[in-house]
Amino acid sequence: MKLSIITLTYNKLEYTKKFIESLYRYTKDFELILVDNGSTDGTREYLKSFNNVKLILNDENKGFSKGNNQGLEIAEGEYIGFLNNDILLYPNWFEKIEAVFEKENAAFVSPRHINPHYDTTDEKTYIEYFKKNFDYRQNYEKSFDECVFSCVITKRDVIDKIGTFDENYAQAFFEDNDFKYRAIQAGYGVFVCNEVCFFHFGSVTSKNLNQNLETNRAYYYSKYPFAEYLSISGAEKYQLQRMTRQFKSFPLNKIYEIYVLGTKIKNRLKKGVFKR
To answer: What is the pLDDT of residues 123-155, one digit of tens each?
Structure first.
C-alpha cells in the first residue's frame, strides 16, 4: 500500500460526505482510516456503511493528537496523510506532493490552502479559482506556516524517526507545529506544493470544542522557547532553523536578539548611517 489516509470525524456529517466524495474522485491507490471521536449526528452509522475502510469508533472525543495516533497504529502505507473531514481536494494532488518527496529530504508536504474566509471563492469554484489566480515561480518551497495539517503528507520512515503526535495537546492546535519543529530539528525540510491546492471550509469541527488554546500555546513554547521565530519570513527563518539544531536550551531567545541587532548594525554600516 503506497498511501494511508487518516481522517478524524466528530459530527458535521454533511462535510464528511463531501470530503469522502472528493477524496475518491481525486486520489488513487490508498487506504482510508476513519477515526470517529464520539459523533452523535449519524456520522458513525454513515461510516459503518463503507466496506473498504478501516474504522475506529471512540466513545468520547480523544482529540486530534490521540485520534491520529490511533490511525497511525494501523496504517500500512509508505506515505501517510493527515486530512481533515472539512476539506475538498484537487486533481492529481498526491502525485504532485509525491514528486516533492522524490526530490527533497522532506518530512511534511502540504498543498496550497484555499479558505473561503480570506479568498473570494467557494466549493463550486475553488479548482478554477486556483488555476486562474495562483501562479508561482517555483513548483514547491519551504514554508513552516504554509505547510498545514488540515491536509498534509508525510512518510512512515519520518514517523519512525521523529515519533508520533504529542498527546499532551488537547483538543487541538499547536500539535502540528510541534511535529514540524521536531522534523526540522531532525534535519528534514517542511514544504508547501504550489502546483495543487485544497479547499478548507475552516474550523468546522474545532470551533465547537474546548481547545485549551492558550494552554497548548504555553506548553508548545515551554518545549521549544525559540519556536516563535520560525514564523518569520525569508532567509532569516532558515538561518534560525539551523541555529535551533545547534542550541537546545532557553538562551536561543537571547541568541536571536543578538543576531537581529548584529544584522541591523551591519546594514547601517553598509548604508553609512554611522558615518559623519
So the answer is: 999 999 999 999 999 999 999 889 999 999 999
How far is it, in rounded angstroms, from Cα 18 to Cα 63?
Answer: 22
Report if residue 219 sits inside a domain.
no
Please indicate, yes or no, whether residues 143 and 108 belong to a single structural domain of this protein.
yes
Cβ atoms < 10 Å from Cβ of 181 = 22
pLDDT computed for residue 204 by the predictor: 60
Same-domain check for residues 185 and 248: no
Q: Are residues 14 and 139 in the same domain?
A: yes
Q: Please give the residue range of the domain that contains residue 233.
A: 225-276
129: left (phi over 0), alpha (psi -120 to 50) or beta: alpha
Q: Please give the Cα distance from 167 to 164 (Å, whole number).
A: 9
pTM higher than the cut 0.90 = no
Encoded amino acid at 18, one letter: K
How far apart, in Å, are the Cα atoms of 134 and each of 90, 146, 248, 261? 14, 14, 38, 36
Q: How many CB atoms lie within 10 A of CB 53?
A: 15
Q: Are residues 260 and 178 in the same domain?
A: no
Q: Is there a contact between 154 and 71 (Cβ–Cβ < 8 Å)?
A: no
